[in-house]
Amino acid sequence: MFKRILLKLSGESLAGANKQGIDPQHLAEYAEQIKAIAEKGVQVAIVIGGGNIFRGLSGSQKGFDRVKGDQMGMLATVINALALSSALEAIDQPVRVLTAIRMEPIGDFYSPAKAIRLLEKGNVVILAGGTGAPYFTTDTGSSLRALEIKADVMLKGTRVDGIYTADPEKDPTATKFTEITYDEVIRRGLKVMDLTATAMAKENGLPIYVFNMDQLGNLQKVINGEAIGTLVKPGASFR
What is the number of domains present in the chain? Predict the structure, then answer.
């Protein structure tokens, strides 16, 4: 079982079927899954995207200044972090929000040492605000934070049950990988994460496990070692 994980959630995942905003039912289900593994002794840090509220790159394509657009996206991740922290507090799970830019009392200012201390005390720690700098995605922020807090693995919770040779929703012949290397992800141009995040994880030997977070109980299955998704790792791969 992993001792410390970085769980990456997309903002869109919080929206559920609504595609935007926050679905309270979906939020509550995520909170229950997270609490279940925290109670088993797993130290859980979380990075959430903000695409259900605002995506900086999309905003810049519609006329927003890129830097300001990305800053708006950072704020969107803080909104999602507060929503998830509220859902966890509602079920009596200790949780703290740390932000990459100063905005006390909304959240404490992030530092790796502070995050690790909180994790070791049994808190779920939600790391909001991306990297605190424009031009970086929350995928890159996830790789960075996972390395900074010395996580054993990054768990990337999506609505697909792993990585496929093509988009399984568009190509019925797409086949699923159980394991794949970073080099093959890059060579095939698979959209697991953006290139910066993938390169950072590859260079530092950070394993990534991609799985379907929307299926209740799947997070616990991953922690238990069940092969329900796709492992991305530095070494040799097989399907």
Answer: 1
- Read off the pTM: 0.92
Where in the sequence is the domain holding 108, given as residue range(s)? Answer: 4-233
Question: Per the domain annotation, does 239 fall within a domain?
Answer: no
Beta partners for residue 107, in sequence order: 103
- Provide the CA 48 distance to its chain's centre, in angstroms: 5
The CATH number assigned to the domain holding 117 equals 3.40.1160.10
Domain assignment present for residue 238? The answer is no
- Alpha-carbon span 184 to 147, nearest angstrom: 22
pLDDT tens by residue, 90-132:
999 999 999 999 999 999 999 999 999 999 999 999 999 999 9
Residues paired with 6 in a beta bridge: 45, 154
Distance CA 63, CA 182 (A): 34
State the Cα–Cα distance between residues 31 and 90, nearest whole angstrom: 9
